[in-house]
Design a protein that fits this description.
The chain is mainly beta. The protein folds into 2 domains: 145 residues, Outer Surface Protein A, domain 3 (Alpha-Beta Complex), CATH 3.90.930; 82 residues. Helix content is 15%, strand content 44%. The protein has 2 helices and 18 strands. The longest helix is centred in the first third of the chain and has 27 residues. It starts with a helix and ends with a helix.
């Protein structure tokens, strides 16, 4: 599950970093020259629409990378709306009066469609996207552009909610896979310490780890017997009378390990 959260958040942040880093502004800038004249047609690299004061208010042309782009400017010559295409696919965006991008829509055959709302500091705030395997996802970012929360459908169609800390490490995730059951996993700030609560094939389980595979495990095994014990490094160190050993339930152990990977 932790790998899945990273697979959602990190590609979204990489898209912003690569796009804002230079790809966007190549749409909006560059020197334009007229193409070679051909009788019977009007040809040019760019067409400008000016207002009464002679200011460019709209431009339609080909940018330096050879891609078509349509741009609208305000009275102060700031780009407020742009529509174009490029190596990564088509894009539509809107800027505020201070030339800060606040909204854009983009489609790429590699990453799928993406809608993003941006903050005034040019950092992402909220995104809606669809991964290359068709799974939809929502992502929420803090003021530093770090992904902090995701809401998504996994490739098998099951829902998943994830919350991450400012260090981009998982803090809490909730999922309901069809092959196991609903599970809640909490990390208090360490990848090794964790609390797992949920159902595995309709059998309740509670795991309290102080570090990876070390702590208290309680639940019900495949035979319907109660499971309770203390574990250290994956081995049971204590089990009360009448309870089954946690390390003997491989199905429970595999499910918990998968959640913590």
């Amino acid at each position: 599950m932790k790998r899945y959260l990273r697979n959602i958040c990190l590609p979204l942040m990489c898209i912003f970093a690569s796009f804002i880093g230079g790809g966007l502004w190549s749409y909006l800038s560059g020197s334009y020259v007229f193409a070679k004249y051909n009788p019977g047609e009007i040809s040019a690299r760019v067409f400008n629409v000016i207002d009464k004061q002679g200011k460019r208010r709209a431009s339609w042309g080909i940018n330096e990378e050879g891609h078509p782009v349509l741009i609208f400017r305000d009275n102060e010559q700031n780009v407020v709306v742009f529509l174009g295409s490029g190596k990564r696919g088509p894009i539509f965006g809107m800027n505020d009066a201070h030339d800060n991008m606040r909204l854009f829509l983009r489609y790429s055959k590699n990453t799928g469609p993406l809608i993003a709302l941006m903050r005034k500091n040019k950092m992402p705030s909220f995104t809606i996207g669809v991964s290359d395997n068709g799974s939809p996802a929502l992502a929420f970012f803090d003021r530093n552009g770090v992904g902090r929360m995701t809401l998504a459908l996994k490739p098998d169609g099951s829902p998943a909610i994830g919350m991450l800390g400012p260090d981009k490490q998982s803090r809490l995730h909730i999922q309901a896979p069809e092959d196991r059951g609903p599970m809640i996993t909490m990390h208090p700030g360490s990848d090794r310490a964790a609390v797992v609560l949920g159902l595995i094939h309709d059998r309740p389980v509670l795991t309290l780890y102080t570090r990876y595979r070390s702590g208290v495990v309680a639940g019900v095994n495949q035979s319907g017997e109660p499971v309770l014990g203390l574990m250290r490094n994956g081995q049971t160190t204590w089990t009360p009378a009448g309870a089954a050993s946690p390390s003997a339930d491989q199905d429970l152990e595999r499910a918990v390990d998968d959640l913590l990977q």
